[in-house]
Amino acid sequence: MLSRRGVLVASAALMAASLAGCKIVQIADQEAAAPAGFDAQAYAEDLWSDQVLPHFSASARPVAEVIPAVHESLEAAGNAYGYRAAEGSPWAFIVSGTGQVIAKNTESRAGTLDIKVEGLPDSVALQIGPVIRGNAIRDALPFVSFQDFTNQLEYADAGKALTALALQAISPAAENIAVGDNVAFTGAVSLANAADRLQITLVELDKTSP
């Protein structure tokens, strides 16, 4: 019969044998080795002031020119005014304009302002959220390419984050704008075909004097 001391020695030997094939990793080492997830918000914020807003400012074309061109021929309008990442992708147009608010639609969470723009027979719809449809902001940026992302989910998240920053920028003005006000706006619209509903996703919105 083993003594108490013998039992302890035998137990220690068994534990040493079981641990011999194990590699001990410090918690800090585990954290360092784990891949970091894609931070879409940080990605969008890094681009916003230095690249996105300057690109919109430099590339915006009058909405009163772009819309009639789209109705006549989306392909021709795209070549003249727009951008698309690849053949078969939607055309994205960066537009700007001024006009009077003739309707403010907030019953739906996908809220809009209907703007009467001089030179256009129909009103223009500006998305004011809080739900914004589409990824027109992302699609209008030639420096945001699907090839830069690991997968489709990251690309989609980048689009959502850019749209969220755009909504954040225009929401204070949108809340204070009423029917009858005059506004100036800059934004983007993405169209797969000319029959698509034309709604502008804003990056800038301001109330102006009559």
From TrEMBL:
What Pfam families is this protein classified in?
Answer: DUF2291
Signal peptide (UniProt feature, chain positions): 1-20
Which Gene3D superfamilies has this protein been placed in? Envelope glycoprotein gp160, DUF2291, alpha/beta domain (2.40.50.420), Envelope glycoprotein gp160, DUF2291, helical domain (1.10.10.1260)
Q: Say which domain of life the source belongs to.
A: Bacteria
Q: Which UniProt keywords apply?
A: Signal
Q: Which InterPro entries match?
A: TAT_signal, TM0957-like_sf, UCP033535_lipo
The molecule here is called: DUF2291 family protein
Name the species this protein comes from: Devosia marina
